[in-house]
Q: What sequence folds into this?
């Protein structure tokens, strides 16, 4: 199954957006929210709690405090 490049969520067949850059890199997005955050605003997924990377980073921070 295809996974969203930005948030890491699994994309159901027939849904989502596939974006190919001029240099050949392929991006899969579950929603326009993820597409705009990465391509338009150049944001990093680790900065957001609603992404898989962000949740991983947040859990590490919590473990450090304990
Ligand atoms: Zn997504």
A:
């Amino acid at each position: 199954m295809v996974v969203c490049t930005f948030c890491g969520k699994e994309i159901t067949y027939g849904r989502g957006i596939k974006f190919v850059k001029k240099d050949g890199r392929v991006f899969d997005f579950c929603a326009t929210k993820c597409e705009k955050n990465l391509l338009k605003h150049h944001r990093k997924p680790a900065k957001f709690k609603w992404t898989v990377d962000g949740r991983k980073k947040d859990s590490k921070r919590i473990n450090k405090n304990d």
